[in-house]
Amino acid sequence: MKSGEHVSRLEGLRSTYDAGYFHGENSGYPKEGYGIHHPDWAPWLKRIASLIEKEDRWLELGCAYGFLVELARSNGYQAVGCDISRFALEQKPAIAPFLAEADVFALPFRSGTLKLITAFDLLEHLNDPIPAAREIYRCLAPDGIVITTTPDPCRFVRNEPTHSHEAPPSHWLSLFEKNGFHADFGFDGADFNLVLAASKSQSQIDGFHRLLLESDPLETQELLESVAARIRTGFHPHPDGWVLGEKNEIYLLNRSDSPISVSLDLSAATTGHNASLLLIADGRVVDRIDLLAADGKHTHRTGKILFNSGGHSLQLQPADGSDAGQIIIGPIQMHVLPASREQLIAVLPFDLFERYHAAALLCQRLPKRPDTVLDYGGYIGDIGGHWADASDFGIPAVFTDIRPADSPKYVSLAESGSRRFDMVLALDVLEHISPTDRRKFLERLDGLAARYLIVAGPFASPAIEAAETRVRQTLLQAGAGSHQFLSEHQTNGLPAREEILRWISVNGYAFCEIEGMSAHMWETLQKTSLKLAHYQQYRTLEKLNQSINVLSLWSSGGEPYRHFFFISKDRAMAPFFDLPRAKEPAALLAFLEQQPEILSAETIRQRGKLLFLLNETQKHVQLLRNEVQLLENQARGLENHARELENLLQAERQKPLAKIARQRLRKRLKREK
Asked: Distance between CA atoms of 634 and 151, rounded to whole angstroms?
């Protein structure tokens, strides 16, 4: 960077991080100011005490007012701090001699001289953190350690104007390791608060994450070196194990390019009434464990759960409505094995499978397959996490979305906008765009695509709109509430097929139109799938998806629910694709339309009713036990009172006056006879 640009950048940073920033004008700090509402650094000082000696050199990057430096020095540590904000550095004159204004990209320290560098909530403020990581590496001693915290945008929802580079855990681990570090990580406090420790030496950070927990329930059998598991939140220590709070989550990181299969061994008991425990993987209920208080500890092995590359969520939650009291679990053993992409995509929701499988078939049939693909709106999953991405279908794609994803294939909207790709996918996206913005959206896709586009989704017609309405009504009748994506279809209105045909024609592009499965088949399967998901019948849903997700496309057999438009920007290369088709599974559809018992809400209600009756019976029995106990206590009290009276009577009988009275009474009785 040129000298003038460097000075201008520093002046801009000083202006940004001035008094207003530290009093909440362009930050999340309260108006009263950082000076009043700053972190308590005592817990961190306790952790750091196990990492360095007091005479070791310690730099606090982004020190703000210097509260941590002040605490460290008052405890004998050789700590100094630096920050870019002149305002912040002037707030505590007493510690000012140990603070300095400095740029994280050009630190005023000799190479290899710092034993500890801490950088709390700094990385997310850097437009480009890579030069900062390299500068930290330069200053760090061979056996030194750097500790940094940063919010995970998959969980951190507060709008912070100065956060220019929020990124999930997998991104930061990769960034530091690519720049020469060994790294470990964990979470501290809020579920979004990632803690990363890095060093030039692996031995310095081994087991670092355990410093963040009082105790760890994970007895991980990490059969794959590429897998890491950390407690994100919950699991409170208890003499008999760990008590489950309102939210109990394990963060699972798969750093390989291939899927993995995970199963858990765990034991659980409830000290209250009967309860149910849910295992939730990336937002999907994948297992349910019913706990009866009378049975004591219950041991359970979960079924296999498949995860693709990146970070994932495993939650253990008391079921809604459970009168659980306290659920206590023992150590959790995690079994991890490699899996295949074929296994992963086979159990995906049929609707997701169809759109990505069709796109993969189209790519395979091109004379020259695309080398770079952008999947726009390609977050496959829900709020709980991502389930797969286009690369799992063999498409060489990265994806972008308004929702951040903890995946090595994810790129931000800003990053994707600065690149060009051989092909751009927009599968079931157009119907989620406001009608007034759809043409602009197509133009944005056009600007990103060098050669091809695939645009797919449902298009407006009375039959499609009626099918979606019936699916929404089925969910409401089952008590599931509204469906986010279908509700957005209704709010925005489905796009007209003529709209995209007109756009293609105006641009002079060649295209081929492919039909997806019939609206009738889509409706029947969607009703079934969404009800199974609502009733937490995950394994049945898995088997249904496996039976539907075949290697060909289903014959539309009537009006299709979804249309695929393959668009070539080179008109001389007019595409035509004859994709393999399978005949509709008429017997399966007929069976599902009969609403078999597994799809009945009554089946689920009966299980819930049984658990409720067991709880009520247990409560009634407990009341009877309490009444019996009370009667027994009263009887024992009467017995004790009778014994006391008997003892008093015996004592009276032993007294001299009592003896004389008895003798006189006997003489009188004889005279009267």
From this structure: 61
